[in-house]
Amino acid sequence: MIADVLAEAGARMDRAVEAAKEDFATVRTGRANPQMFQKVLVDYYGSPTPLAQLASLNNPEARTLVVNPYDKSALKAIEQAIRDMPNLGVNPTNDGTIVRVTMPELTQDRRKEYVKIVRGKGEDAKVQVRNLRRKAKDDLDALKSDVGEDELVRAEKELDTVTRTHVDQIDEALKRKEAELLEV
After folding, report:
1. Three-state DSSP class for 63?
2. Distance of alpha carbon 166 from alpha carbon 162, whole angstroms
3. pLDDT of residue 176 exceeding 90
4. Contact criterion met (CB below 8 Å) for 104 and 90
5. For labelling, which of 75, 115, 157, 167 has a CA lying 20 to 30 Å from the CA of 125?
6. Is 136 left (phi over 0), alpha (psi -120 to 50) or beta?
7. pLDDT by residue (tens digit) across 73-108?
8. What is d(CA 87, CA 117) in angstroms, rounded to the nearest whole number?
9. What mean pLDDT comes out for the span 51-56?
C-alpha cells in the first residue's frame, strides 16, 4: 500500500516536471523553435485548435520559422493567432501559401523579462510538486491504522527524497533555460 502511494506520487511528479520543461520551451529565446508555438490556438471554424494540428512547422534558419498550413483557407486565422500570442513579440508574414515568422533580436531588457516569466513558471511547477507531496502524505496518513508507525516514518522520508529530487530537476531545467535566455 505504501509502495503504491509512493509510486503514484513519483509518477505524478515526473509528469509535473515534464510539463514544466514543456512550459519552459514555450518561452522564446533568440532562436526560432517550433515548440514555442505549441500553445498557439487558432480559431478554426469556430473552435480553438492547436497550431500543430493545422500546419507543419519548419525551421529553415536560426531565427525563421515557416508555418505550412494543411488547409490554405486557414492562413489568415493562423497568422492572427501567432500575432495575438502573448510573450512572442513576432509579426508573421503571409505570402498566400505559407506563413513566415522571423524572430526579432532580443534586447537585454526583454531577456530579463523572459527570465522573470520562466522563474514564475518554475515556481508554479515547484508548488505543483509540493502539492502532490502533500496529497501523498495525506494518503500515507490515511494508512496509519493499517501499517506501523516506523514504516510510515520511513515512507515519509522516502517521499521527501522523491520530492526533493523532482524540485531539483525543475531547478536544473530552470537554470538551463535562464542560461539559454541570457546567451547573446
Report:
1. coil
2. 6
3. yes
4. yes
5. 157
6. alpha
7. 989 999 999 888 876 778 889 888 999 988 878 788
8. 9
9. 91
| 27 secondary structure, DSSP code | S
Give the CA count within 13 Å in the CB-facing half-sphere of 167: 16
C-alpha cell at 165: 529530487
Nine-digit cell at 52? Answer: 500543430
Nearest to 101 by CA among 111, 109, 93: 93
Question: Within a 10 A sphere around the Cβ of 52, how many other Cβ atoms?
Answer: 13
The answer to whether residue 146 scores a pLDDT higher than 90 is: no
| Angstrom distances, CA of residue 116 to CA of 25, 67, 88, 100 | 14, 29, 15, 28
- Which residues have C-beta within 8 Å of that of residue 155, sequence separation ≥ 6? 2, 5, 6, 140
Fill in the amino acid letter for 54: L
- Count Cβ atoms below 10 Å from residue 85 Cβ, excluding itself: 19
The span from the CA of 34 to the CA of 172, in Å, is: 22
Q: What is the CA radius of gyration of the chain?
A: 21
pLDDT (mean) for 114-136: 94
